[in-house]
Amino acid sequence: MKIGITGHSKGIGKSLLEKLENNGHTVKGFSRSNGYDITDPIIQDSIIGEIVDYDIFFNNAYAGPAQTEILAKLIPQWTDTNKLIVNLNSKVALAPPVHSPKVLTQPAHIQNFFADYYWDKQSQNNLISQTLFKASPRIMNIFCGFVDTDSAEFFISKNKMTPDEVADMLIDLIKYKDKIYIQQITFDAFDVDYSKVDYDFDAIEKRGLRNDK
Q: What is the 3-state secondary structure (H, E, C) of 116-170?
């Protein structure tokens, strides 16, 4: 199959690209590292144009509203097809914007950081919910818990999934592409109590939340 992935140079995207290529698929990555800054609307349109004949697209990279914008552009393009969009969402989107009192003690820009991430992911849910009772496009909305990646380094948790583990799970799921329409799924590491999760707020100060290197 022909497969596209945003944020392919590290984390889950990197593991996906390597494993899918090893399985014989033709895979194209879209990241800043190879000239695709997904925050640029022109680049978004370019990606949509390049994957017109692809079978699967992993909407993996998060960079503010860009992930949602790509999803909104791709849905009408892939309507009335059997193509599959795998949307990497977050388990955090299933909870209120600020799920720890510790965040409420932080400056406004830190609180906004968490709130913006939550609302960006909720925007994806709102788009996808409009397709749940339609035959196409096929969208698999993945609510993923803690993964040991750079973009989740500020979440301090004793247990995190590895990018390879998540990639293996996703590759297993896309095997059902033409058999079962898997619309939504949630998975996480074992024994994660979100009420006890701590944060490295200094790490948030040092970097923006992007996983599209």
A: HHHHHHHHHHHHHHCCCCCCCCEEEEEEECCECCHHHCCEECCCCECHHHHHHHH
Strand partners, 144: 90, 187
* CATH number of the domain encompassing residue 78: 3.40.50.720
Residue 213 in domain: no
What total number of domains does the chain contain?
1
What distance in Å separates the CA atoms of residue 167 and residue 11, rounded to the nearest whole number?
Answer: 9
Range of the domain at 35: 2-206
Cis peptide before 65 (omega within 30 of 0): no
pLDDT digits (tens, 9 = 90+) for 119-173: 999 999 999 999 999 999 999 999 998 888 877 777 787 888 999 999 999 999 9
Residues of the chain predicted below pLDDT 70: 96-100, 205, 207-213
